[in-house]
Design brief:
Blueprint: E1 2-6, H1 10-21, E2 25-29, H2 38-42, H3 56-80
Parallel strand pairs: 1-2
Length: about 90
């Protein structure tokens, strides 16, 4: 399967990685520097919970993301050879 992803931020690159690992042929288009726009400004924040009041589905998704993040970022570091804490 050939897939085109527009945007080289954390979501675009993360999606591209997972799709490629699943056997897809992936092309990422980015007008600037990968990771240089919203991903850079967002600082990897995964916890939009308190003091805001979100629906239960958003809270559940955020908690799941926080649980999955350490293993995923370790896998990305292993594959890329890049320290995500740099």
């Amino acid at each position: 399967m050939d897939i085109l992803i527009v945007g080289g931020g954390v979501i675009g690159l993360g999606s591209a990685l997972e799709l490629a690992l699943g056997g897809a042929t992936v092309t990422v288009l980015e007008r600037g520097t990968c990771g240089g726009e919203s991903s850079w400004a967002g600082g990897g924040i995964l916890s939009p919970l308190l003091p805001w009041d979100y629906p239960a589905a958003v809270t559940d998704l955020t908690q799941l993301s926080c649980r999955l993040y350490p293993e995923w970022v370790a896998r990305v570091a292993e594959i890329s050879g890049i320290d995500p804490e740099y």
